[in-house]
Amino acid sequence: MIHGAVPPREVLLEFIADNPDRASKREIAKAFGLKGDARVELKDLLRAMEDDGLLQKSRKSLARPGALPPVTVLDITTRDKDGELIGRPAEWDEELGVAPAVAIRQSSADRAKGKAPVGGLGDRVLAKIFPSKDRAGPAYTARIIKVIDKHRNALLGVYREMPGTSGGRLMPIERRGEELQIDGADLGDAKDGDLVEVEVLRSGRFGLTRARVLSVIGSVASEKAISMIAIHAHGIPYIFPQSVIAEAEDAKPASMSYREDWRDLPLITIDPADAKDHDDAVYAELDPSPDNPGGVIVTVAIADVSWYVRTKSALDREAVKRGNSVYFPDRVVPMLPERISNDLCSLREGVDRPALAARMIFSKEGRKAGHTFHRIMMKSAAKLSYQQAQAAIDGKPDDKTGPLLETILKPLWHAYEILKRGRDRRQPLELDMPERKIILKEDGTVDRVHVPDRLDAHKLIEEMMIQANVAAAETLEKKRQPLVYRVHDAPTLSKQEALREFLGTIGLSLAKGNLRSNSFNGILAKALDTPHQTMVNEMVLRSQSQAIYSPENIGHFGLNLLKYAHFTSPIRRYADLIVHRALVGSLGLGEGGITPEEEAALEDIAAEISTFERRAMAAERDTINRLIAHHLAGRIGDEFAGQVSGVTKAGLFIALPQFGADGFIPVSTLGRDYYIYDEAHQALSGEKTGTGYRLGDSVEVRLVEAIPLAGALRFEMLSEGRPMPVAVRSFHKSTRRGAMKKPGTRPNRPRR
Predict the structure, then answer these.
(1) Distance (Å, rounded) from C-alpha 468 to C-alpha 473?
(2) With CB atoms counted within 10 Å of each terminal CB, which end of the chain scores lower, N or C?
(3) CA–CA dist 76, 101 (Å, integer)
(4) What's the CA gap between 13 and 28, in Å, rounded?
């Protein structure tokens, strides 16, 4: 190949696989000696390879789909036959298959000299990843950069007695875990079937690792144990170190230093009825300026967490390790101790509290005319729930909202009407995905699954928070201050095409070309009030890229915004705390500003908190799946109305809308016909009958198995398959002909 010429695709793929640490566009161009027009050609080729699904973007680097990024968070879970440590990525998309094993390489010479961090079984580490040259072993090797959590040798599992012995085994709660041996002397009060937390004692090269029971959480059959399973399975830190608790308890209420006195401004909080911390307050009024007739001034005040949580403090180190608060139906794992989150930083009614406030001016058309930021002392005039505030506006005020109606609530709703004009003009992505909330009884068992009403009160707060987030990003950009953006890339061409093919099966079409968020809104509007409404919303959501944190701004596709940064929830998100510090520092608002060391580390911080956000989402989702499986375990044999939410070669995923849960029907149980998987049309089609099932079909199913510990449901299909469209049958026939033409091959029949 000529040096200086753009290499072909296969050469680029080989280079990226062999050099994951040199897989950025700049490094690739440098490696192949590309300059000028050749660099532009390379950029276009790499983008085309992304769109074709051959590459995926990870921060600034490119990687093969399913490949690990050059720097990855690993959990060290086991040892190989030679006693060497084996890790797996802490977060992994199950749709890509089994998470790859990674061999941990630790030089004894480096360890002896203290040059390299030492990892052990149960540790969570940040590691440099290398492709393995040993085809007989794991696909990757790794060198530990730092040990993130040394306390992960406290593991969770189910204790099972072993007949004829005084002890037993710890059965792992996750598929990739290993069994541990527990001797009778280390058993404590654990009984057969208990969910227990254990400490790893020692592990040799041979035999099972031994462990000691630290605590008995309770019977694994109890819902109260289910969120703890997710906490341990995903490695979420949930116990605050004593140094963090002590620092929080020693914190004193903020003084008036560096602050404007806004305690007379009647800011109010509007939150869920069961909220314990209140980090945002709002107020709106008409703009008295004759230059802005009909305009409004909207004030959003946010708890000043940066005053209490300073860079490199014990509180800060723990907060960045957690990344965000995690919310389960029965508990919250907070980012900050209660002394900070529920007390000193919570904007309590009638109590002086420090805050950062955005004062934003809008024209009557909803266009922002300007904004300023202020470090203030405020006093919340009222704590309201969404339902309270909405009821007052709807003509049913209570004793608390009655006096606030004319002076505070109606001006807020008037301002929201103005902000809606701007939102309607902007046309962000308008998905209709009802949020299901699990309501628990006092004993922790599931009472019901509830879909709360989506009120204008919710939308009001949401839009005002969005505008404050935009103002924060714009201010910091103007000051040329490094920050962490909330970015959301446009859907890849491959995801657009997959959505386009699905929509074609139900008579809808998606335009080609440079799509914007409102392109999807047209599809959602056409699906409204049709049997396909829920599934179309789900498929549009699946087609979207994942929003992440990044110091590089690419805009927010879903919100249709050029600049966006999270500013409004610093009590529960570390990204917002970074933005607060950046505002304090760049605007000269006093102590607690961002430091040069933090600015230099923003790329790593953004990558870590993006990972921790995905971790929290996965833990919350797993807990809901386990709770629903537990709730339905007593209803084996019952029939349910469901919808086909996923189609694979192995079978059908079935969603139960009333529970917000999914289950599976193996293809081997669908009937006597031979079913062929049509990926393009997302269908399973019967070879003989020409009938089958497609994504979005409404079906009746019977529950035949529920496994609470795994959060798994298995169904039996009761509905007859429906005739497949001509396009599906044609695909079916061509697939069979293609299979027959290949000598020595046969169709990939499912296991029976």
Answers:
(1) 9
(2) C
(3) 10
(4) 11
